[in-house]
Specification:
mainly alpha; two-stranded antiparallel sheet; globular
């Protein structure tokens, strides 16, 4: 699964009567940022303060990420991270929902209300896959550091924090410690520059350097997302303004037969 797939799956919180998507107002921008992180981890792009540079335009296996890479390659001049995130399509969350459908992770009922607006009921989410994903996230959060072998999971944890999904991953009073650890993991002080990471093993040094680069990229995108969210909420204007929040009806149930366990999956009321 791409980072965006995992981010959306974590945002789906089963309740007693319906499955909600948390953080909808921020989520599509975080999904857009996750694509840059995926391409950065794959060594296809570098993200600077002023522009996103394609360093390797070779085909990537994921079709959506490949289309993003092609768009970045064709952009003249190369877009800045800020402009790229601001141009996030309103349909992005729906597109990722369709991806999860294709992977049999969710089942969705689509319909139109009397006003003609498209609605989406999430009828089923694979709670076992969500729990496994939460376990991976928790392994990074509990370690309190960005490990070379866990660059993908570390990036996911930071995006969860940026998208305001900490309570979806660590709900209620029992999740306080997890939420605090997640916030601490995203703090810049915990990330060492590449030069500070040393190892006698060449492969370990390379892995550490790549991870440091991923950390820097993700932290930079967190800053861009924070500025974007702040711009949309300045002057009391809701970030959700114009995002068509009515596209979700909030209907459906988990429908899996799984019981609540782990990080409180299924413990949310309506």
């Amino acid at each position: 699964m791409a980072l965006g797939d995992e981010l959306l799956l974590l945002a789906m919180v089963p309740g007693r009567r319906r499955i909600r998507i948390r953080g909808e107002d921020r989520l599509r921008f975080a999904l857009r940022a996750s694509e840059l992180v995926d391409l950065g981890l794959a060594g296809r792009i570098t993200v600077g303060p002023r522009q996103i540079e394609v360093t390797d335009s070779q085909h990537v296996e994921d079709r959506r990420l490949n289309n993003v890479l092609r768009s970045l390659s064709a952009a003249t001049p190369p877009p800045s991270p800020k402009d790229w995130l601001r141009r996030t399509p309103r349909s992005l969350t729906i597109e990722y929902l369709s991806r999860l459908e294709d992977q049999k992770v969710v089942r969705v009922r689509r319909w139109r209300d009397p006003g003609g607006r498209a609605r989406h009921d999430i009828l089923f989410v694979d709670l076992s896959r969500r729990r496994a994903l939460l376990d991976r996230l928790d392994s990074v959060v509990r370690s309190g550091s960005a490990m070379p072998e866990a660059a993908h999971n570390t990036a996911l944890a930071m995006l969860v924090q940026a998208a305001g999904l900490a309570r979806a991953a660590y709900p209620g009073l029992r999740g306080i410690t997890g939420r605090r650890r997640l916030a601490a993991l995203s703090a810049p002080a915990l990330f060492m520059p590449a030069g500070a990471r040393t190892s006698p093993d060449a492969d370990a040094e390379l892995a550490a350097a790549l991870t440091a680069g991923a950390d820097a990229l993700t932290r930079q995108l967190l800053g861009e997302l924070s500025n974007l969210y702040a711009d949309f909420t300045t002057g009391g204007h809701s970030l959700a303004h114009g995002l068509d929040p009515g596209s979700w009806s909030g209907g459906g149930t988990a429908g899996t037969g799984h019981h609540s366990s782990g990080h409180g999956n299924g413990s949310h009321g309506d």
